[in-house]
Structure formats: structure tokens, C-alpha cells
Amino acid sequence: MDFSKFSDDNFDMKEWINNALRRHSDSTTSVDVHTSNLVMKLQLFIQEVSKSLEETSQVALNNIPRVLREVESIKTETSLLKNQMMMVKDDIRKVEEDTAQSMRRLVEIDEVKSRMQGASNALKEADNWSTLSSEVDEYFEEGDISQIADKLIGMQKSLQVLQDVPDYSERSRMLENLKNRLEALLSTKLVKTFNNHDLDDAKYYVNIFSELDRLSQLQTYYNNCHKSSLMRTWSEIRDDPNQSILSWLPTFFDHLLALWHREITWCGQVFPEPVRALCSLLAQTIKSLHPSMQNCIKDSLNEEENSLQLLIQLQVITQRFVQGLEKAVEMFQATPNKFNDALCELIDVVQSPYSSYLLQYSTLQQTTLMEVLDSLTMNTKDLADTAESMLDSISQAFRASGEALESCVKFTNGYGSAGLMEALQIFFSAYFGRLDCVLVDLRKHCHLDDDSHHADDDSSNQWSNFQHAFKIIEICGVLMTKMEEFRIKLSTELQKELTNIFQESHSQSRYNENYLKASRPMEWDKVVELHEKFISNGVEAVLPLTRDNIAKLNEHALKFAFDVIFIHLRRQLLAVPNLPIWCESEREAVDGELPTFSLSPLPYITHVGDSLLTLPQQLEQYFSQDNESLIIALKAGRIPYQDAGNSTGAHYDHHWLESFAFGAVNVYTESILKIKLLTGHSRRQLSADIDYFFNILAALEIQPSDELKTIEELLEVDAKSLQEKATEPSSDQNLVKTILKIRNIPL
Among 36, 404, 418, 641, which is most buried by a count of CB atoms within 10 Å? Predict the structure, then answer.
């Protein structure tokens, strides 16, 4: 039996018993017998384990005294070792104190030796300088380049040792003059070598100039050999009158890249830093272009209507060239170092024409957006055409805004975010102001602010105008929806760009270089502030003033639509105080006994009633269909005479109807109180008019005002009852006194 599993840390008793019984399931012995055998074996094994444990414990107890003695012995030896270490430490300290003076003396002697050795070397180099300087003139006369170079290299090494001699500066000038003589002697050969790509000679000259610390001068010779050809290519490409800068600039960049790929292998065998050599060639060439690349871009911008778009296209071309350079460097270098100093300097030169325009981005963007605004035409003489042109202007405005966002990302890589926000705020403020001016002009065209204007001839067009005015309200809803969508898009895109800018892991591409922080720190602070606002407020940080501007425009649109109909009611009711019927006293004897219900309402109130009864049918067509833009605009604003508690809800048609009715009640009440005098007949006529008006309101399920009800009551009572009401404390004294005056009844 295997008892080893009992020592396992994960021993499972049930599993062991099941396995033991399962293995004996095929045997002829019964399970009970087998179980009894297992129990007996386990008992025997337990006895063996107990006996072994007992023996081990006894051995351990017997060994304890010996272990204690050994521990005590170790403690004694440790104490002795500690005492010996202290003695050694004291001996070392004593030796250091006794030999300190001797060590200082040895150090001083060593310094003297070093100085003597330096003086000896200086004397040897001084003698060597004299020898070399006398010999080099002879080799100059012979034109032996190899010997001249060797002597000059030796003189340079000697001069490094003679830095402290009094005539060091004179010796240095002498050596530089000799180097210039050698360079002049080699100038023709250098030009020939670089033009013919003579590898062996080029390596030889590079070695000489490197030893003489004149490799930069050799680089100049190499640059000059190619620069003239590149300048000639620049002139030929640029002077083609059939091509714009968008055509010939990429052609020139392709020519530069082709030159790079042709020269890089040869330069890699010649120059110790071939990438630096070629970057220097291209940088000097671009700096020497005539006319300069910056002037060419400036001239092209003067001829272009959309300057910013042209700049973006040119920058894309330039960026493609830079990416080609970076890829070429990565392909050549065994360990790619995309951002070595030479390549960065070249990229800076290539990008430099755009630096001033990047700093002017906000102004350029404002100019582009305002040109779009100037191109919008809205006819204010025809209401239908105006509504259509306003709707068209929304798509144009937001298309321009979307292009502005794309321009910001493409042109500034997000660094112009604050400038974009400023440009968009100015643009939208001007755009909403333009729409608001359109509404003002429409009001003037429809004479909505002129109560004295008699426009009864225009009443036939009032419902048509009302339809177009509601279209303008719907346009405001479209504008709100578009604005909210754009704000969300603007927030998302700019947050992504700003997050990339502020992340430490952001790619350090030269096109992502923080040009604002270096040149315009105050504008960079605005970008930082904008980023913090995005983190804190999200989309609420985007164009916060536009919401107020749209709300104001929406209010004006609602009032315009309301006034298109209400002006006709208002003009009819404002004419009430001046109706001649109120002063026709001669008819009183004839008609004095006629009851009020036998009088017909006058035309002014029937016109008002007919208009109010027509309103439900006219309003139904706007609210019977699911017009989301219209509902959005209605929810966001209020119309005149609207109950504040009913500004939201599903029954907007009834709210409008109520507002028209409440407005009519209000104006009618004010007009009645302005009547100077009522005769008996005219009083009954006015009472009949009011009663008719009440019937109209009842048909519309609208309650008249308490003031108008009181006026009707005061008009119907006799003079004595009216005088009594004037003395009642609960009565509206001012209203009663006014009616007494109108009815010419003394108090």
C-alpha cells in the first residue's frame, strides 16, 4: 500500500479512500473484508510512525546539552575575535597618523615630476614646431600635398601642447595661414574630385581636413559643387508660366530627394557623418534660393482668394517632403535616429516659410470665415425667398466652420485651437447678428413696428406671411441642432488634439513642435487654459456665447411670427378709441329702447373674431406633423403674452392660440379705457362688441381677463348702480372711476 500521499500538502482523505476501494472493486474479496484490512494496515502504520517519532524525539533530547555547549563556545570565540579586530583597527589608525606626512611629501614629489615631464614635452614640441615650420615652406614650394598635410598636422599637435607659451596666438595665426594656403592649393582638385565623385581622392582629402579641423570647409566645397546645379533647377522649374506653385514646388522637392538618394551611398563612404553632410547641402541650397521660397509663397498668396487653403496645400507638400527625408535617413542609418541635429536643422529650414503664417493662423482663419459670411446673400423683400436663403446660409456657415476645424488640425496640429475658438466665436457672432438684422429688415418691410400704418391691403397675405415666418422659426430649430452637433464635434476633435499635445508619449515629430510656447507664450497659455476647460467642463467650454446668440435670435423669430398676425388684430383694436360711433348721440332717441342683443358687432371686432377663429386651422398644419426642429425652437423660446407655466409641453398650437387671444384681450382692454365718451347707444354697442368677443373666446375655450369682464359689467349697469359701485371698498376704484368718466357720470 502506498502511504506516501499522506505527506502531501493537498491530501484529500475522501479521494484516497475512494481510490483504495475502487482499486479493489474487481477482487473476489468482499468490500467489508477489504475495508477491515485497510483499517488494520493503517493502524499498523500509525504504530510505526508513532514509534519512529518517539525515537527521533529521544535522540533530539539527548543532543540538546551538547548543542548548548557548542553555542557557548562560539560566543566566547566571537568575543575574542571582536577584541582582536579592535586592536587591528587601532594599529591601522596609528600607521596612518605616523605616515601621513610621508605620503604628502610623496604626492608633492610626484607633482614636481609631472610638471618637469610637461616642461620637457613642451620643450620638445617647441623644438618640433620650429623644425616643422621651417620644413613646411619647402614642401609648399614643391607642392607636395602629402608632406604639407603631415607637417601641418604635426604643427597642430605641437600647438596643443604650447597653449601656455607667450606667443601662442601668433603661432595659432601662423598655422591658420598655412592651412589657408593648403586649402587654396587644393581648391581646384577638391572641386574636380567632388564633381567626378572620385572616391579615393575624396577619402584622402576628408582625412586631411578632419585631422586639420577643417572638415566644415571641405563640406562647403562639396555644397558649392551641387548648389549651383540645384539653383539652376529651381529657376527652370519656377519660371514655367503654365505651372502654379502647387505644381512646381513638389517637383523641386522630388528633385532634392532624388539627389539625396543618389549621393547618400557615396557620401557614406567619404564623410564620417554622411547624413549631416547631405542635410547641410540641402539646407544651404534652400537658404540660397532666389527668389526665396518664402517670397514665392507670399506672391502666390497674394494671387489666391483662399490664402489659408493654399497654405495648407503647400504645407502638405512640404510635410510629404519632410517625411520622405525622415524615411530616407531611417533606411540609411543602422540605428535609426530620426531627429539628429542635422536633420532637425534641415527640417527647420524647410518649415521656416510657414512660421509667420502659423503665428497668424487666427487672423487668417477669421478672414476666411468672414469672406464666407460676406458671400451670403439674403433677400429681405420677399419673405419666402428670405426663409429659403436663411436655410441655405446655415449649411454654408457650418460647412465653413467644419472646414475651419479641419484647417486647424491640418495646419497647426491643434496648437491653433485657441485661435480657432476665437475665430469661430467672431464668425458665429457676426453670422447670428446678420440673421438678426434680416429679421429687423423683415419687420420693417412688413411694417410690424408701425401701429399707425394702415396695411389692411396686406391682410390678404397675412397667413402666407405667417407660414413663412413659422418656416423661419423652424430654421432657428435647425440652427440650434446644427450648432449643438458642431459644438460636440469641435469638443471631441480639439480634446483629442490637445490630449496628444499634452501627453508625454506624443510623437516628437518636427511638425508637432510647440511653436507657440517659444514665440507666443501668452497664446500658449490660452491653449493650456482651453485644455483645462475641456477637462473640467467638456462641451460646455466650446463657444459658450453662441447659445445665448441663438436664443436671442430664436426669441426674435418667435416674436416676428407672432406679430405677423397680431399686428392686424392690434391695429384693429388700437383704432377703437377713435371710432366715430361712440359720439353719435342723435341716434340715442331712436335706438334707445333697443336691447343689447339686437345690436350687431362692429366690423373691427368681427375682423378680430374671424382672425382668432381662423387661427386653430392655420396652426394645426404646423403641429399635426412631427417637426423636430420646430419643436426645439418653440421649447427654447417664449412668445408675447405667453403664460410662463405653459412655455413647454405638447400642445404648442393651443399655447399660440392663447397668446394671440390674451394679446387681443390686453390691447382691447387698453383701447376701451382710452375712449373719451360713450353715449347710451354707443355704450350698448360697445357692450355688444365685448359680448361678441367673449363668445369668440368661449368658442376657443379661452377665459377673458377679469378686467375686461368687469368693464362689461360696468358698461351694462345703470348710472345709479355704477355710482354705488364707486363707493364699494372691494371694487377696483381706478377702473370704476375711468368708466364713470367715459360714461360722463358724476361721482
Answer: 418
d(CA 704, CA 696): 10
What is the Cβ-side half-sphere exposure of residue 406, based on CA atoms within 13 angstroms? 9
Closest by CA to 746, choosing from 722, 715, 730, 729, is 722
Contacts of 349 (CB under 8 A, 6+ apart): 282, 283, 286, 287
Q: Residue 208 corresponds to which amino acid?
A: I
**What does the DSSP 8-state code read for residue 244?**
-
- Each residue of 462-503: pLDDT tens digit? 888 888 888 999 999 999 999 999 999 999 999 998 888 888
| 663 neighbors 572 (Cβ within 8 angstroms) | no
Q: Cell numbers 557614406 correspond to what residue? A: 268
For residues 726 and 736, the answer to whether their CB atoms sit within 8 Å is: yes
Q: 214, 178 in Cβ contact below 8 A?
A: no
Q: Which of 704, 711, 703 is nearest to 732 (CA)?
A: 711
Distance from the Cα of residue 322 to its chain's centroid: 25
Mean pLDDT (whole number) for 664-681? 90
Cis ω for the linkage preceding 704 (within 30 of 0): no
The alpha carbon of 585 is separated from its chain's Cα centroid by a whole number of angstroms, namely: 78
Residue 487 has a CB neighbour count (10 Å cut-off) of 19
Burial 661-680 (b: 16+ CB within 10 A, else e): bbbbbbbbbebbbebeebbe
**Model confidence at 673, in pLDDT bands (50, 70, 90)?**
very high
Q: Could you tell me if 221 and 194 are in contact, meaning their C-beta atoms sit under 8 angstroms apart?
A: yes
H helical segments located in 2-30: 13-23
Task: Tell me how crowded residue 419 is: count the other CB atoms within 10 A of its CB.
Answer: 25
Neighbour tally for 571: CB within 10 Å: 21
pTM of the model: 0.71
Under 8 Å between Cβ of 561 and 477: no
Between the CA of residue 621 and those of 104, 150, 182, 615, 616, what are the distances in Å?
111, 103, 98, 11, 9
Using alpha carbons only, give the angle 562, 565, 571 rounded to the nearest 5 degrees. Answer: 115
Which three cell numbers mark 35? 475495508
Which H or E element spans position 247? Answer: helix 245-270
- The Cα–Cα gap between 668 and 460 comes to 23
Please state whether 309 falls in left (phi above 0), alpha (psi between -120 and 50) or beta.
Answer: alpha
Half-sphere exposure of 312 (CA within 13 A, CB side): 19
Q: How far apart are CA 128 and CA 136, in angstroms?
A: 12
Cβ neighbours around 358 below 10 Å, total: 21
